[in-house]
Amino acid sequence: MKAASDLMIERGVITISLSEIGQRAQLNTALVKYYFGGKSGLMLALVRDVLGKALVQMEGLTTMDVDPVTKLKLHIKGVINVYFRYPYVNRLIHAMLLDPVLGEEVAKTISRPLAETQRQLVEDGVRAGALKPIDPMLFYFIILGACDHLFFSQQALRHAFGVHRIDDQLRRAYTDTLLDMVLNGILLPQGKTG
Amino acid sequence: MKAASDLMIERGVITISLSEIGQRAQLNTALVKYYFGGKSGLMLALVRDVLGKALVQMEGLTTMDVDPVTKLKLHIKGVINVYFRYPYVNRLIHAMLLDPVLGEEVAKTISRPLAETQRQLVEDGVRAGALKPIDPMLFYFIILGACDHLFFSQQALRHAFGVHRIDDQLRRAYTDTLLDMVLNGILLPQGKTG
Questions:
Q1: Is the Cβ pair B145, A141 closer than 8 Å?
Q2: Strand pairing partners for B151?
Q3: Which residue, among B84, B101, B117, has the nearest Cα to B44 in the 3D structure?
Q4: pLDDT score recorded for residue A194
Q5: pLDDT tens digits for B16-38?
Q6: Cβ of B98: how many Cβ atoms within 10 Å?
Q7: pTM summary value
Q8: B44-74: per-residue pLDDT in tens?
Q9: Which of A40, B32, B68, B160, CA to CA, is 20 to 30 A from A6?
Q10: Between residues A122 and A94, the one the model is more confident about
Q11: A183 touches chain B (CB under 8 A)
Q12: Model ipTM?
């Protein structure tokens, strides 16, 4: 699993073969197949491993004794941190969701729990009078897309902006800018007339 | 080009073969190859055709006689409309950016002009005192990711929310919610203390 993860990070693509993974892990491909039941099984195990812990932490957030706005901030930071560490994860999930069998599995263990946690965080904030009412489904796609795109589109980062690596400073700047935009918007009082 | 576009929309993937495209267009594959110089050439022509007009319109925005906030709103609406009509376009660009030769071509004709137009729109807004100063590069990835994700992740839309089609009403709700979030944020005055 670590070999597959490392290869996807190094290459910036999710199209790696079982024999490349076996080679990197110094394991027989047949053994990898036997253990995971093939590449799909390995990828599913990897996604569960990477996102499982993150999802448990996120669900823990909903019962934490902090105000709802702080919770939402921690949630968004957490999502960005996952994409920072595993930039392939969104593409991998997307590819899996296209598969009828894997798709249902990924939806059940990842997409739906994430959507549910997020819905709860948003509704808590609205109930506390801290957040405007907002459709949790629309919120889900706006936030996940915004969190992911810097990492998903590292090619555009290089080609259009000449930035070749996402370091910790860039991750932090992206997080702060995104949080400020989501919470406060970019409009100044004078702009409100526009 | 229309056959390729239709196939990618119908299947929700960009991995279609030249022979499938030829079959749909009722044209000999050799003829398609001769005319476009292969599948890469066809895809490049398609992306240019789809985004060329949109980019020209966007560049026109910068010189229009409306206030900067309205310009930025029109820009974001325009981006969402492109993804709504051609949901495969971002993935296709991403795949092309991975290719050393195609990548430079796509960056030159699409990514850089888009980034430049957006930078100008944001800086105009800041100069007019309507928008907070914001890093145009970070803005680029947040906005493009947020605009794209509903369309990119239609599988998650189906699997996690049971929504099987993005209709015009959903497109409009997504646009309005995104614009309000980007401009005004989701925080209510009471939340500002949190």
A1: no
A2: none
A3: B101
A4: 44
A5: 999 999 999 999 999 888 999 88
A6: 15
A7: 0.91
A8: 999 988 888 888 888 888 888 899 999 999 9
A9: B160
A10: A122
A11: yes
A12: 0.91
Strand pairing partners for A131? B187
Backbone angles phi, psi at B14, to 5 degrees: -100, 0
Tell me, what amino acid is at A103? Answer: G
Give the three-class secondary structure for B68: helix
Reading the block at residue B65, the tokens are 């006689």
What's the token pair of residue A4? 């597959």
Classify the phi-psi angles of B38: left when phi > 0, otherwise alpha if psi is within -120 to 50, otherwise beta.
left
Q: What is the pLDDT of residue B194?
A: 44
Q: Does A26 touch chain B (CB under 8 A)?
A: no
A33 exposure class (CB count in 10 Å sphere: 0-12, 13-18, 19+): middle
Q: Where does chain A show beta strands of DSSP type E?
A: none
How far from B115 is each of A15, A172, B54, CA to CA, in Å?
A: 28, 21, 13
Task: State whether A149 and B141 contact (CB < 8 Å).
Answer: yes
Indicate yes or no: CB of B147 within 8 angstroms of CB of A145.
yes
* Residue A24 CA from chain centroid, whole number: 25
Q: Which residue has the tokens 């110094």?
A: A26
